[in-house]
Amino acid sequence: MPPSWPPGSSPSTTARWPKPLRTTSGKWPAADAEVTCRALDLDAAAGRLAAGGVLILATDTLPGLHARADLPVAVDRVRSLKKRDRGQPLLLLAGSANQVGTLLAPLSPAQLLACDRCWPGPFTLILPAAEDLLGHLATPDGTLAVRVPEHTSLRRLIATAGFPLVSTSVNRPGAPPCVSLDDAVRAFGDRVDGYWPAESPLPVAVAPSCLVDLTGPAPRVLRAGPLPFPEGGGDGS
Fold first, then answer.
1. The CATH number of the domain where 169 resides is what?
2. Is residue 81 part of a domain?
3. Domain-embedded: residue 36
4. d(CA 227, CA 196)
5. What is each CA distance from 9 to 90, 129, 232, in whole angstroms?
6. Residue 227 phi, psi dihedral angles, 5° rounding
């Protein structure tokens, strides 16, 4: 069984990240529960997220629950929907590497190279978090799991929303994640503020993203994904 994030090590870093862009619980619904949430276009979805909403978004891997990462109430709603406590980290989706820059500590040349090779794409990279990271996102070992998705319209939505998004699969505790957007909306549609079906077709998901820990002396693949982690670079030195 592969190790889980967050890892137990933290890196020594030397290079700086590029300048950032500023810019309830209850019973689970039945599988055939009436879905009351609305499909939203890109601008409406971005506006709902900016206002503190929680949405189901189509992505280039699996559909997921999303909220703006800088809005603690929205992030706590996502945790409540998944029945996860604050000790269980959520990954972040960013519209670009620059957009997530303020949330990360200075990165080593090898870490920057790995980001350049993996993003945009189906790779979630565990990286050292900034010391002043927002408290509701902080992990015990000071890391963040970040991905810049492949699909252009999804990156545009995140950029328009104004801040990276927390992202987690759509599933009940212990159950496999929903693979299709239709299944995700049926499972959680009455508990979120809408869903975004994407403006153009997204690739059919074959797996969650590849999860790679870049905080140690060498990259560690914690979860395989649709594509293999590119060889060369990515150690914490």
1. 3.90.870.10
2. yes
3. no
4. 25
5. 18, 12, 21
6. -125, 150
pLDDT tens per residue across span 172-204 = 888 999 988 999 999 999 999 999 998 665 555
Instruction: Please count the structural domains in the chain.
Output: 1
pLDDT at 200: 61
Q: Give the pair of three-digit tokens for residue 176.
A: 């496999």
Helix (H, G, I), strand (E, B) or coil at 54: coil
**In a domain? residue 194:** yes
Under 8 Å between Cβ of 151 and 101: no
Domain boundaries, position 161: 42-223
Q: Residue 211 falls within a domain, yes or no?
A: yes
Q: Which two tokens stand for residue 40?
A: 């939203």
CA angle (108 as vertex; 104, 114 as ends), nearest 5 = 85
The span from the first CA to the last CA of the chain, in angstroms, equals 27
| Burial class (CB within 10 angstroms; exposed 0-12, middle 13-18, buried 19+) of 231 | exposed
Residue-level length of the chain: 237
The pTM of the full predicted model, rounded to 2 decimals, is 0.81
